[in-house]
Design a protein that fits this description.
420 residues, elongated, 13 helices, 7-stranded mixed beta sheet, alpha+beta, single chain
Length: 420
């Protein structure tokens, strides 16, 4: 289902495994060249921490009231992903001026429409000015009409200006729709619909004609589909033409020539029954099962194709996450913990102030709290005085040692001169 960006921003992000709220959606990270939303931003970047985001491939669902993710591991630091870090805050959409390639301003982008399953940007809503927007409304700009998108301007072909003028909207569009509804009534049952450039006028005898055409199409389509299903099947009964000419013999494999001969002689139903007539008399059931299986196969192929695309992206993201976790573990080793780390049985793995060791890392990983551990690392620089930094005694090459040595030499010389 397509959703507007403004309907996604502000939604709470909730985990599926524990049902807890992680944060709210704050912004979107988009790739203008791919026309794709790559991630949903939860926390903005601050002085001491990176912005956090959810890659689109890790989102389970985007509903009208919440964004669902599998667990807290779906959230990553933006700064640790090169692509997201490069695009974050570098590309905004709302407020972009829309210019034609011959220099005419058409308006400003007020929103965009997104496929909530894939993140694909379908198009943009363009506002043409406050007063004009009230009278004419926003205009629709398909994503494939955009020639180039910068940080302040979006360029479109000059022909888009003509398309904008032809689009109804605002008060004028609402009145036009209301008038169209009032015109549909009583004996004047002439309804004029303009959608995708197609006009249809259905009334009286024309309605009967269209129904007849539809029935004819169905009568043609059903035998074609049925014939496709029987080719290659075994005939369980001999089928003959009205003149007793054998179309197919019992036990033979039905070919397309048999189907054509049955059509020409009006024996296609008998041929179909022969293909399905067996010991269990399952002709009609087999045909229905084959049709259902065909539809099921189509859905399965579509799911498999989508699964391959999303799994490939998730594998790349997963590999990146593993590398990021290894770096965070190396950063944590040897540093004190800022909180108590517990396992699933409330056994203490590390207490506050304990040094993070490899053994603690392994225990946290087995308990499923490794992310908690690496988020609890004390990273501030220790505040030490000069006395804390000094060794117990003065260095041999220090100025104090040299001064003390010089004074000792002078005392020795003075003492020898006095004795002499």
């Amino acid at each position: 289902m397509d959703k507007k960006a403004r309907d996604i921003i502000g939604l709470p992000v909730i985990t599926f495994d524990r049902g807890v709220k992680v944060a709210d959606v704050h912004d979107l990270i988009i790739d203008p060249e791919m026309r794709q939303v790559l991630a949903l931003v939860m926390d903005e970047k601050a002085m001491f921490h990176s912005a956090r985001a959810i890659p689109f491939g890790r989102i389970s669902a985007i509903g009208s009231d919440a964004v669902i993710i599998p667990d807290g591991k779906a959230v990553i630091d933006v700064d640790r992903d090169k692509v997201l870090k490069r695009l974050y805050n570098n590309q905004t959409v709302r407020g972009l001026r829309v210019l034609t390639d011959d220099g005419r301003k058409l308006g400003e982008v007020s929103d965009m429409l997104i496929d909530d399953k894939t993140g694909e940007i379908k198009g943009y809503h363009v506002s043409i000015g406050r007063m004009l927007s009230m009278g004419q409304g926003t205009k629709w700009l398909p994503a494939d009409s955009v020639l180039n998108m910068g940080q302040r301007v979006m360029y479109v072909p000059a022909s888009v200006a003509d398309d904008f003028e032809a689009q109804p909207g605002g008060i004028a569009g609402a009145l036009d729709q209301a008038g169209g509804k009032l015109r549909v009534a009583g004996a004047k049952a002439n309804t004029r619909l303009e959608e995708l450039g197609e006009q249809a006028k259905v009334s009286g005898s024309k309605l009967n004609e269209q129904l007849g055409q539809l029935g004819e199409q169905v009568r043609e389509a059903v035998p074609q589909r049925t014939a496709q299903m029987v080719v290659g099947k075994t005939a369980h009964k001999t089928v003959t033409a009205p003149d007793d000419t054998v179309i197919v013999s019992e036990g033979d494999t039905i070919t397309q020539d048999n189907v054509d001969a049955a059509k020409q002689t009006g024996r296609l139903p008998q041929l179909v029954m022969s293909a399905g007539v067996g010991p269990a008399q399952q002709g009609a059931g087999n045909l229905g099962g084959q049709a259902t299986q065909s539809l099921s196969d189509m859905r399965t192929e579509a799911r498999d194709l989508w699964g391959q695309i999303t799994n490939r992206y998730e594998q790349v993201v997963g590999q990146t996450d593993d590398k990021m976790m290894e770096r965070r573990i190396k950063h944590a080793l040897g540093r004190p913990a800022t909180r108590v780390i517990l396992d699933g049985d409330d056994n203490i793995i590390l207490n506050t102030g304990d040094i993070i060791t490899n053994r603690a890392i392994d225990a946290a990983r087995q308990a499923g709290v490794l992310d908690v551990l690496v988020d609890s690392v004390y990273t501030e620089r220790p505040k030490l005085t000069l006395e804390d930094l000094k060794a117990p005694r003065t260095g041999e090459a220090s100025l104090e040692s040299e001064l003390a040595s010089g004074a000792s030499t002078q005392e020795t010389t003075s003492s020898q001169a006095t004795k002499g």
